[in-house]
Amino acid sequence: MSNKTNLFVVFIGVICLTLLVLCSNAQVEEEAPLSDICMGCLCEATSGCNQTAICNYGACGLFRVTYAYWADAGKLTLDNDSPDSEQAFPNCVNHPYCAASTIQNYMIRYKQDCNDDGIIDCYDYAAIHRLGGYGCKGILPPTYYEILNACLRHHLGN
């Protein structure tokens, strides 16, 4: 299978996982603000949807979530984990469903128009994800933005 096919399969997997999270409302406090396409493109821009990524330099999983991000999103956990358990953070953010719910909760908390274009869209969520809830008006790394933009254009036909 080619690398492009593998990325497409992972992208579709992330979309399916997002849909499952949206349908099950797994610990997401309100309606999830990120669409399945946005969540997939965020994954692509953040890690290339690398499923083998565990934890490096304090950031974990497909979405490279940090402990502070996870805590701000409500310390979601898998099944019987206590949020105070040492393994609760890596267990959640390395699990696609829990990581997607974490991102949705974080966006609910910090939702804002980061680029001042009058709408809150995936570009704003990507800035919040990468630069934080209080720093999203900053400049995104060029490669991150380019991958996000290409992905959104491809899947939205813009």
From TrEMBL:
Among Gene3D superfamilies, the record links this protein to: 1.10.530.10
Q: Which residues form the signal peptide?
A: 1-26
Kindly list the cysteine pairs connected by disulfide bridges: 38-122, 43-49, 55-60, 92-98
**GO biological process terms, semicolon-separated:** defense response to bacterium; killing of cells of another organism
Gene Ontology MF terms in the entry: lysozyme activity
The broad enzyme category this protein falls into is: hydrolase
What is any Pfam family matched here? Destabilase
Which keywords are on file for this protein?
Antimicrobial, Bacteriolytic enzyme, Disulfide bond, Glycosidase, Hydrolase, Signal
Q: Which InterPro entries match?
A: EF_Hand_1_Ca_BS, Invert_lysozyme
Catalyzed reactions per annotation: Hydrolysis of (1->4)-beta-linkages between N-acetylmuramic acid and N-acetyl-D-glucosamine residues in a peptidoglycan and between N-acetyl-D-glucosamine residues in chitodextrins
* EC number of this enzyme: 3.2.1.17
Q: Which domain of life is it from?
A: Eukaryota
Q: Which PANTHER family match?
A: DESTABILASE-RELATED, LYSOZYME
Q: Can you name this protein?
A: lysozyme
